[in-house]
């Protein structure tokens, strides 16, 4: 998967929080299979650059997906898509 700029996927005028828009975008990629189980996501600062937001905003989106069980954060190794549960 290519991680080119996704700043155009964030609408700063929307009533929906920016971190939620990013979480929704990443969730869609996971559900479609574009991001498959075991895929490694860029770091928080890198995701911030990709989406054109502060790194903490990107990290909040990652944490939300982690809490949903879609991502696993391994300290010192990275953030990975978890396998789908049947």
Walk me through the structure.
The protein has 86 residues and is an alpha+beta fold. The chain has one domain: Winged helix-like DNA-binding domain superfamily/Winged helix DNA-binding domain (Arc Repressor Mutant, subunit A, Orthogonal Bundle), CATH 1.10.10.10. The protein has three helices and three strands, in the order H-E-H-H-E-E. Strands 1-3-2 form a three-stranded antiparallel sheet. Strand 2 (71-74) and strand 3 form a beta hairpin. Helix 2 (44-51) packs across helix 3 (55-67).
What is the assigned CATH homologous superfamily?
Winged helix-like DNA-binding domain superfamily/Winged helix DNA-binding domain
Shape: globular
Nearest-integer average pLDDT = 95
Poorly predicted ranges: none
Order of helices and strands: HEHHEE
Q: Output the number of helix runs.
A: 3
Number of domains: 1
Tell me the helix content. 40-55%
How many runs of DSSP E, i.e. beta strands? 3
Largest sheet: 3 strands, antiparallel
Radius of gyration in whole Å, from Cα? 12 Å
Taking the alpha carbons of the first and last residues, their distance comes to: 24 Å
Strand order of the largest sheet: 1-3-2
CATH architecture: Orthogonal Bundle
What share of the residues does DSSP label as strand, in percent? 5-15%
- CATH topology title: Arc Repressor Mutant, subunit A
């Amino acid at each position: 998967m290519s991680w080119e700029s996704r700043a155009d996927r964030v609408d700063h005028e929307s009533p929906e929080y920016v971190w939620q828009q990013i979480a929704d975008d990443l969730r869609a990629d996971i559900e479609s299979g574009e991001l498959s189980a075991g895929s490694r996501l860029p770091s928080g600062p890198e995701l911030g650059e990709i989406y054109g937001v502060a790194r903490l905003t990107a990290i909040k989106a990652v944490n939300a997906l982690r809490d949903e069980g879609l991502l696993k954060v391994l300290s010192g190794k990275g953030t990975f898509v978890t396998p789908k549960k049947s």
